[in-house]
Design goal:
The chain is an all-alpha fold. It is 60% helix and 2% strand. It has a single domain, classed as Ferritin, core subunit, four-helix bundle (Ferritin, Up-down Bundle). Helix 2 runs parallel beside helix 4. The chain is globular. The chain binds zinc ion. Zinc ion (ZN) binds next to loops.
Length: 172
């Protein structure tokens, strides 16, 4: 059975959703500030929602390569700020194997406004990609799913922009 060509658009959109989950879960794990952890956790949750919509319609791997819309490279390496030791493990070491510093030496210092910026920027790109990928889709179910997904992205983008403005209005 040959799947209709437009299903690849859904698979690519699903891949972007999976990337979003992976990226924001990792950012959530590495952030030191619990408020920033919350922000990345919120984003991961929304991308989980995206995958819930697309997953059942987009089985299998995409033929075309989905673009990388998240700055994975910024979160790939963990660096001990005490001694500069670098590692690429998934979990933060409890102590630095090089200098013995506690786990917080590996946590990422990200401010809340930078975190919302990151959510807004990536979600804007994802929204543009979803729109482009969905342009040629004719299947009603697929179209409906992509519209639903765009709605989730728009919601997250709006939330990020609002929170960003709220922080700017504050005294910090
Ligand atoms: Zn160290």
């Amino acid at each position: 059975m040959t799947p209709p060509p437009q299903s690849d658009a859904l698979r690519q959109a699903a891949q972007v959703g999976r990337d979003g989950i992976a990226f924001f879960r990792r950012a959530n794990r590495l952030a030191s500030d619990p408020r920033v952890k919350f922000i990345f956790g919120r984003a991961a949750e929304e991308y989980e929602g995206v995958l819930k919509v697309l997953g059942p319609l987009a089985k299998g791997k995409a033929k075309g390569k989905a673009p990388t819309l998240f700055p994975f490279e910024d979160y790939e390496k963990l660096e001990c700020y005490v001694c500069g030791y670098e590692t690429e493990t998934d979990e933060i070491p409890e102590v630095c194997p090089s200098c013995g510093a506690a786990r917080y030496a590996f946590e990422k210092e990200v401010s809340q406004d930078r975190a919302w910026d990151l959510v807004a920027r990536t979600t804007k790109d994802v929204l543009a990609f979803t729109k482009k990928a969905g342009a040629g889709v004719k299947d009603a179910k697929a179209k409906e799913a992509l519209a639903k997904v765009a709605g989730i992205h728009k919601g997250l983008l709006g939330e990020a922009q609002e929170e960003r403005a709220r922080l700017e209005g504050g005294t910090s």
